[in-house]
Structure formats: C-alpha cells, structure tokens
Amino acid sequence: MRALIDTHALLWWLLADDRLSPVARDLIADGANKILVSAATGYEISLKAAAGRLTVPGAIVAFVPSRVAAEGFESLPISIEHAARAGTLPSIDRDPFDRLLVAQAQIEGLPIVTADPAIGRYDVETIW
C-alpha cells in the first residue's frame, strides 16, 4: 500500500507520540507499505521551527530529509498539477498545506494518514 502522511502524523511517528493512532502506527511500521512525505510537509515543519512553534534536534534543513530517509519514506515533490488542483479545491479547509496534501492525494490516488477531520471532508480517503 502507498499512503501520504500528514505533517502531524509524521511528527508524531518520529517523536513516538501516543497521539498517533494504532491503525496509523501499524500502517507506517509495516515495511511492505510505501509512506510518502510531501514537500509541503517539509516546508510546514521548517516554518513552524523558524517561528519557534516546534523544536527539532539539529538544523531544520537536515532534520526533515535525514529523518525521512532514515525511516525509509519517500519524498513527494509538488508538481504544477498538484499546485493548480490545490487552488481549485472547495474552501473546506483554508490551510494551504492541507490543500496541497489533498490535491496530491487526489492526483496520485493516495490515502492520507491524518487525524485532521477537515481533510476527511474532501474527496479523498483518510486513514486514522
């Protein structure tokens, strides 16, 4: 199975946070599954760290790529098609990062691992 992981789910996985659901934890832990991390997630994490809302060990520019690689996850670049689709989505969620993830999931045919109920209101499969 291939799945796109939302920012909070990725951080909760990396930090072994109990808020990650058992279903999400099992899916991510199963090496047979391919977990994709959006470039939007890297951007969101770096913005939060720069604003002092998130602390990560070491330099943020190294943290995200190194942890994604160490976990065996794959990065998912943002294409022009993803960006254009994000701009056309209904205004269910005004968070631009969520909208990019939804657009990527729709175009790539991926479920999103997320606890965010707003994402589930889009035409996209969620796993939690």
Task: Please outline the helices and strands.
Blueprint: E1 2-5, H1 7-14, H2 22-29, E2 34-38, H3 39-50, H4 60-70, E3 74-76, H5 80-88, H6 96-108, E4 112-113, E5 126-127
Parallel strand pairs: 1-2, 1-4, 2-3, 4-5
Helix pairs in contact: 3-4, 5-6
What this model shows, in words?
It is built from six helices and five strands. The protein has 128 residues and is α/β, with parallel strands linked by helices. The model has no long low-confidence stretch (mean pLDDT 94). It has helices at residues 7-14, 22-29, 39-50, 60-70, 80-88, 96-108; strands spanning 2-5, 34-38, 74-76, 112-113, 126-127. The protein is 48% helix and 12% strand. The protein has one domain: Rossmann fold (3-Layer(aba) Sandwich).
